[in-house]
UniProtKB/TrEMBL annotation:
Domain annotation Major facilitator superfamily (MFS) profile: ranges: 1-210
Keyword Cell membrane found: yes
InterPro entries noted in UniProt: MFS, MFS_dom, MFS_trans_sf
CDD domains hit by this protein: MFS_MefA_like
Name listed for the protein in its UniProt record: Tetracycline efflux MFS transporter Tet(V)
Topological category with respect to the lipid bilayer: Multi-pass membrane protein
Keyword Membrane part of the UniProt annotation: yes
Organism for this UniProt entry: Mycolicibacterium duvalii
Annotated Gene Ontology cellular component terms: plasma membrane
């Protein structure tokens, strides 16, 4: 069995550490396709919200659509991980892009003809969630097979910059301006076109040499899944980070994804544009955090730093819940973005450095499954909850609870001792 260390490594070039992966052609094509796709996803996040509000200006309807997205993702992410360890990761990603393009194109067509309904949006959200469930494990398993191990931090840093800039900044801002000046169906048409461009770039890539050979003694999918679960259960830093993430998502994601659009709409003029720009500040902050971490060696206390970023970094959500000042809300979301981006780059690198290559797809899918298990629950309850509890109280809880969860996780997993016993510099 070979590993990612067998990849031919060109001589080091001068320049930023974060730019090193661009010396590989396959990586350049892959990250270009991923960048276009992420930009489309960023636009879609706003187009979807504004389209639902245009059809039915009610938080419960948006909760329904967002819940379908979450259910699709969570229900299939384990299957996606098993597929990533057994099938061609490149083929999986290409198939996902075909599904994304077709689904959003149908929404655009229905919207432009006046035939679009909330249930259409719910079905589309579920399909896109299922597609995402296959994309993330396949991408995570593919990256170590086209890059040397010592460039994974840089590659994760590039994605950590590209994803927030396009998904949380440029994409939402562009969608807010476009939909605010026209109508949601046009925004959906543009998103479908972007997915199509990403598909063409993926088709230009070539399949990497198979670097992991499936064990013939372990032919059943359930055996694969059981091995992945067992690995997570006996790895404290991994287990407790996933438990933290699952509760973090329950407390934080619903308020951000479901309630924030209504907070912005109620407190600011030109709600569509303002919502896009609020998300943009989060995206810019995430890019700054990702770039800061990936441009230098991994922190010696990498687990402690990661948990501090996610725990303490949630505190500004309390400000988001009470402020009617755009600069204050923008600054709060920027800080949240910085800490989120830095933590995610460290986390992605840990999975790729400390998990065996032949198990990375399964562990990545378990990561998404466990950490997102409560996402549809958060989406489903926060809309109705906002009718009986003030949004200020909900955002205050979202800011404070993760701090407590992070302290518990660090202590229970013995993370401070673990990171010293397993240095990754």
């Amino acid at each position: 069995m070979s590993t990612q260390h067998d990849i031919a490594q060109p001589a080091d070039a001068a320049g930023w550490r974060v730019l090193a992966p661009f010396r590989f052609r396959e990586y350049r094509l892959l990250i270009a396709a991923v960048s276009v796709t992420i930009f489309a996803e960023g636009m879609w996040a706003v187009v979807m919200v504004l389209q639902v509000i245009a059809l039915d200006n009610n938080p419960t309807s948006l909760s329904l659509v967002a819940t379908c997205l979450g259910v699709g993702l969570v229900a299939f992410v384990l299957v996606g991980g098993l597929a990533a360890d057994r099938l061609s990761q490149r083929s999986i990603i290409i198939t996902v892009e075909v599904v994304n393009t077709a689904t959003v194109a149908v929404v655009a067509l229905l919207g432009s003809t006046g035939a679009l309904r909330i249930w259409h949006m719910a079905v589309a959200a579920a399909v896109l969630g299922i597609a995402a469930a296959f994309f993330f494990p396949a991408y995570s398993a593919l990256l170590p097979r086209i890059l040397p191990a010592d460039q994974l931090l840089a590659a994760n840093g590039v994605e950590g910059v590209v994803r927030p800039v396009f998904q949380r900044a440029v994409g939402p801002a562009a969608a807010g301006v476009l939909v605010g000046a026209t109508f949601p169906a046009l925004g959906a048409a543009v998103v479908a076109g972007l997915f199509g461009v990403g598909l063409l770039l993926l088709l230009a890539t070539t399949a990497p040499a198979r670097t992991v050979v499936a064990d013939p003694r372990r032919p059943h999918l359930l055996d694969d899944l059981r091995d992945g679960v067992a690995f997570v259960a006996r790895t404290p830093w991994l287990l407790w980070t996933l438990l933290f993430a699952s509760l973090f998502v329950l407390v934080v994601l619903g308020p951000i994804e479901v309630l924030l659009p209504f907070v912005v709409q109620d407190r600011f003029t030109h709600g569509a544009q303002t919502y896009g720009f609020v998300l943009a500040f989060f995206g810019v902050g995430s890019a700054v955090g990702a770039l800061s971490v990936s441009s230098r060696p991994l922190p010696r206390r990498y687990l402690s730093v990661m948990m501090a970023m996610w725990g303490v970094g949630s505190l500004p959500l309390a400000i988001v819940g009470v402020t009617s000042s755009f600069p204050a809300m923008a600054a709060a979301t920027f800080v949240i973005g910085v800490t989120d981006g830095a933590g995610m780059v460290i986390w992605g690198t840990l999975l790729q450095r400390r998990v065996r290559a032949e198990m990375l797809g399964r562990v990545s899918s378990l990561d998404f499954f466990v950490s997102l298990a409560f996402m549809p629950v958060s989406f489903a309850i926060v809309g109705p909850l906002s009718n009986v509890v003030s949004m200020e109280t909900i955002f205050l809880a979202a800011g404070l609870v993760p701090v407590v969860l992070a302290v518990v996780a660090v202590a229970a997993a013995g993370m401070r001792a673990d990171e010293l016993a397993h240095p990754l510099r």
